[in-house]
Design goal:
The chain contains 3 helices and no strands. The protein has 97 residues and is mainly alpha-helical. Helix 2 runs antiparallel to helix 3.
Length: 97
Amino acid sequence: MDGWIALYIFTLAAFTGYEVISKVPVILHTPLMSGSNFIHGIVLVGAMVALGQSESVSEQIVGFIAVVLAAGNAVGGYVVTERMLEMFQTSKGGKRS
């Protein structure tokens, strides 16, 4: 029964997140991505804590996969943010005002 409740909460969170993100103006996407990178950092720390407290081999495997995915997500978010910030620079290296 707990699995169904978790799936229900995940589904509600997915729909709520989609509705909130779809209403954000384009000008605020970069700050929003910075905030989501911060959240991914917290997820990475949580995955490392879960991996550190794992006892069985299956828990260690799941924890390791969680750490790898969270790290990849955080790094990818920073790469995308960097590319978006480069779009605001001129070709001579100066910044647009």
